[in-house]
Amino acid sequence: MIEIKDLHKSYKMGSNSLHVLKGINFSVKEGELVAIMGSSGSGKSTLLNILGMLDGYDSGTYHLDGVLIKDLNETKAANYRNKFLGFIFQSFNLINYKSAWENVALPLYYQRVGRKERKERAIHHLKTVGLEPWAEHLPSELSGGQKQRVAIARAMAAEPKVLLADEPTGALDSVTSHEVMALIQRINDEGRTILVVTHEEDIAHMCKRIVHLKDGVIVSDSVVEQHRLEANV
Amino acid sequence: MFRFIFDKDTWQEIWGSISKNKVRTVITVIGVLWGIFVYIALSGAAKGLDNGFEKEFQDIASNSMFIWAQSTSMPYKGFKIGRSYNLRTGDVEALKNKHPEIQFIAPRNVQGVFGGEPPQVVRGFRTGTYRVFGDYPVVDRVAKKKIYEGGRFLNDDDIKYDRKVVVIGEKVRDELFYKDEEAVGGFIKIGSIYFQVIGVYKINNFGFEGDDSILMPFTTYKRVYNMGDLVGWMVVAAYDDVDIVALEEKVKGTIKKMHDIHPDDERAVGGFNLGEEFGKIKGFAKGMNLLSLVVGLATIIAGVIAIGNILLISVKERTRELGVRRALGATPREVKAQILLESVFLTVVAGIIGIILGAGVLALIQALLPEDGDFPYTNPTVPIPFVLGALVIMVVLGTLIGLIPAQRAVSIKPIDALREE
For A95, which residue in chain B has the nearest alpha carbon? Predict the structure, then answer.
C-alpha cells in the first residue's frame, strides 16, 4: 500500500538547512495497523505530513497504492488526499459551525457527492462510531471523545485507502483514549490500513507493528503482539 | 468554474459559512449597506431637489431677463451725461429682428410700482389701491398664471380693439367682490373709467405681480395713461439653449445704438438677468447631484474595503478551518472561489438591502412632505442605470477586494494552516 525508498527531507532555516529525514525506507501492506513512535524532533510528524501529501520531500520515492507521489501541485495533492487518505488530528479539527454530520460529509462535498447522498453516507459513518443521535449537534456540544469519534467518521467518510492519525489520543484522558483506540482497532479489523503517530508506549502497543524513529532514521521496526481493547462503542 | 458557481452545494456551503458567523456577517453587510444606502438616499434627495426646482420653474420663462431704461453715465454724440431716455414700442420689433435667439419680448407698463401712486379702484362701496399693469398676452408665458372662475387671460383682440377689460388678482377679487358674487363679468372703476373683469388669476410660487394687481391690455393702458409709445420695461425671453448672459450684452448693445448711448456706458441700460440667477440655482442642484454621486461612491468603496478587511481577518481566523478543508481534499481553487463568492455574495446582499432601505427613506421623505409645500422637493428618484451601475461597481470591487483574502487563504500551506493555533 505504502512504499517509501530512501526518503530525504530537509528544511531551510535561513542560511543553514535542517536535515530532518535522512533516508527512510519503509513499507506498509494493506490492512496493517502501524504505530510510528519517536521523541519530538525525531521526524515522525514530518514523515506523516509527507505521507499525507501535506508536505513534499527532497529525494527518494513515495508510492501510494502504486501511484508515485512526487512534486504534486496543490490541486493534484488535494485530489489525491481526498481520494486516498483520511486524516485524524490530535485536536480533532472539526469545523465548529458545522454539525456533526456536516463535518463528516465534508470530504464527500469535495468529491461532488450530492447533498442527499452525503447526508445518508455521513449518518451511516456516524452510526459506525456510535454517534448517530448526535448527528445534528455542533462540535461544541460534544465531549472530547465524541469529537474524536466524529473526526474518525469524517476520515472514513470518503472510504480512503489509508487512515493517518496524528496523536489521536493526545488530547484525551485515558478512558476516552482507549475508546478511540478500540474504534481504530475495529476499523482496522475491517481491513483498513492505519498509521498512528504517537509518543505513548501503551497506545503504540495497541497497534500491530511499531516503527521507532530517531534523528531522522528508523531505528527499529517490529511486529508486536497487539493489546486488544474491549470494543464498547 | 461556471458549474461551480451554479452548483447548489456551493451556495449551501457559502450559506453555511456566512450564516453561522453571524456577527462577522452582519458587520460586513452593514459596511456596504451603509455605503449604498448613503449613495441612494443622497442622490435620490439631490434628484428630488432638482425635480423640485424644475417644477417650480416649469411655469416660468426662466431663460429670460428684464431690461429697462436708466440715465446715461457718459456723454456721447453731443448728449451730456445724466440724460434720461425711454424704451419705446419700436425697440421691441427692432430687437426681435436683430436677435433671432429671442423667443419673445413682453413690453410692460405699470402704475404704482416705480414711484407714483397706485390708482384707486372702486366697486360699489368697496375701494382699494392696486398696481395696474399694461400687458400683452405674451406676458403669461413669462410666468404662467392660473385663471379660474371661468374667466380668461388677455388676448390679441383685447390689444387690437383697446378693450377696457382687466384680469384681476385673487386678492383684488376678495377685496372688491363679496364672497357669493361672480367676479368675471363684473365691472370695476379704475380712476374714472369702468373696466370689465374677464378673469381672476392665481399665482404659482413665482410671480412678479403678486396676487394684488390688475392687468389690462397694453394698448388700453397706453390710452388711459397717455403713454404714447413708451415702454416701462421689457421682459426678453430667449430659447432654452441660448446663453442668456451673452444675449444680455448683445441686447443692451443694440439698445445703446438705437438710443445714442455710449457703447461703454454701463449704467444707461438697466437689466436683471433672471436666467443667470436661475442658472445659479440649477447649478446648485447639479452640484448637489455630483456631490451625492461622489460621496455615495466613496462610501461604497469604503464599505467594500471594509468587507475586504473583515474577510482578511476572517481568513486569518479561519486559517485552521481552511487547512482542514484542504487536508480533506479542497483544491486551492475551491477555497479561493469560496472566499471570493462569500465576498461577492455579501456585497450584493448588502447592496440590495441598502438600495431597498435607501428607496424606503426616499419614499418616506416624499410622503412626509406636504403635497404643495414650499420646499422644492419632488419625486426623488435614482435612475435605474445608476442603481445597476452602483451594483456592478460593488460586485467588481467586491471581487477585487475578495481576491486579497482569497489569495491569502491559499498562500498558506495546508500543513502550516493546520499547525496554526
Answer: B321
